[in-house]
Amino acid sequence: MSKDHGNSIKNDEQYEALRDQGMSKEKAARIANTKDSGAKGGKASKYEDRTKEELYKKAQEVGIDGRSKMNKEELIEALRSN
Under 8 Å CB-to-CB from 36, ≥6 apart: which residues? Predict the structure, then answer.
């Protein structure tokens, strides 16, 4: 349960999480008070719409072993289960 910061903070839970990450009170409040604070981004393209090379690079970034032997479908599954 997050602390209630009154009317000055719209998203108390997000504010506390940002403060725990080391952000200043001002920056955390500015982010937590945005109109869509706490909303998920959802701006990344679907894995199915990406090329095998793009999926391979993403798998490399997150450290998936055996990626060089995987086909596109296997890369998608590995990324989703990681």
Answer: none
